[in-house]
Amino acid sequence: xxxxxxxxARPEGEPAESDFALVESEVPExxxxxxxxxxxxxxxxxxxxGRMSEARSYAAPVQLGEVMTAQAVGEVVQSADPRFSPGDxxxxxxxWQEYAVARGSTLRKFDSQPETAALHVLGTTGFTAYFGLFxxxxxxxxxxxxxxxxxxxxGQIVGQLAKIAGCRAVGIAGGPEKCAELKExxxxxxxxxxKADGFSAALKEACPDGVDVYFDNVGxxxxxxxxxxxxxxxxxxxxxxISMYNDPTGAPPMPGxxxxxxxxxxxxxxxxxxxxxxxxxxxxxxxxxxxxDGALRYEETIxxxxxxxxxxxxxxxxxxxxxxxxxRV
Amino acid sequence: xxxxxxxxARPEGEPAESDFALVESEVPExxxxxxxxxxxxxxxxxxxxGRMSEARSYAAPVQLGEVMTAQAVGEVVQSADPRFSPGDxxxxxxxWQEYAVARGSTLRKFDSQPETAALHVLGTTGFTAYFGLFxxxxxxxxxxxxxxxxxxxxGQIVGQLAKIAGCRAVGIAGGPEKCAELKExxxxxxxxxxKADGFSAALKEACPDGVDVYFDNVGxxxxxxxxxxxxxxxxxxxxxxISMYNDPTGAPPMPGxxxxxxxxxxxxxxxxxxxxxxxxxxxxxxxxxxxxDGALRYEETIxxxxxxxxxxxxxxxxxxxxxxxxxRV
Lengths: 329, 329
Prior knowledge:
With 329 residues, the first copy, chain A, is of the alpha/beta class. Chain A is 25% helix and 26% strand.
């Protein structure tokens, strides 16, 4: 049998475990051009919150009763696509389920170790950091790069890539432990605790030369503080707005609206990693090299059991994870 | 004697006439390299609101008791700069006063007719439209360009430049008269009244192919409606946020913060026309040609008497002007 986590209800505000259902179905058979994959690890990511709402954003919502959309890495069990053989490790949009059938053309073969890296540093979170920082943020050596949700899967990579680019890397994270780890383990020049009193003053102190690139994962009040410290010509790579996903109108308005963009002649630009699909091999090649030579590290927060995927997902909105949040099937 | 309008008090919210004072002083003498100019027309512009507040934005504030900063056009009365002779028409940052002494290097000689054009279509408002639309907005033929405050000095030019660029030009303005004029006199394809019921629906109807470029002069709720209709790859040229100048936190928050930039992979970029100073001759040359061949029209709202400059300025925030608001000295 195939255990699956489906969307049972559309959440109002923060998702609850009751918005999901654990169901069983037959293990499917692959048709021509298709591959049956047994999942080893499932991904939980903030973007999945958008798929739970009825409104279409940049992709269609998950329907009630459908398997939750997610990336997963696993092994090929049966293949009707000549490019894949049983035992191959593959990654794809396989959903929160133990077994998935997918068209071979949507799968990426993954030969590196560990296989979990396919879901983070050598997968879409790593690619998100890579394209968002380099293509959208365009940092120059000596500039200051600030990243929010810095202890998260994307944020940890962004700060390290900023160091590789010769920049000052400043992370924003919740709590002293996360902040200490960013500096000690991941080489950030400074880390600022947004939950602590005096956040704004600490941010100012951490950015003595202002902010040239802001890689924004959170939105809301944290972002309002950062954009006030932009330098002329500053760039904001808008990757996520997790603080607002459960309550889009809950944040206070940005004082003066877009006025700060005029004051600082700044650019705010949103991006989706999937738009960079043709360049994924470039990102994977470079990230692999930095990983191999020790310039890049990663961290995983692994939850055991597919039945706990909803819990792991909900934890993202509470800052429960460090680095990439994964579910071991 | 020289009549001057000075800043008497820092306004809270909307400026009042009591925030200004009409004073008299001696007509100044030009020193070496300086020029004495008698003003014919003074400019009133939304950016002056920012100079009235204590906080520095991109330029230093006007101090209490100082002459209000403003562009003006007038004639040279006395010159200690060999490049200028009495009778020359010049434009510069001369302030709200009848006579001003300025360094010759800060003045631009103006030979076209009428001289008021130096303060609008062939001056910074025209240049703002030109660089904001072409350099920041980067419209392509067939795209839809939306401009807010379309009946204002910058907005009227933006829409006409969009037509010259082969785009669909959609203006947003307050009231049916302004909207009718945009279509009938200035060639906009559509005009939407933001004060009317059903604004959002009318905007949607006016932009059947979505919005590729949004030239934003206003911010607030009008901008929130426009950005919801962006196409993938849309661009926002952030020129002004007049709806928020008197009450920076008064507008409702943008739902989802910067989330729309992600959904539409859009770019919002602020600019200041003064950054384009080296390219002003390029803009003046092209705008002059379009003006001469009838592709470009302008409108002026002229207030008589320097003593009425504050009233003309306050009118900007109430939509009292059409086209460029000027004060005849």
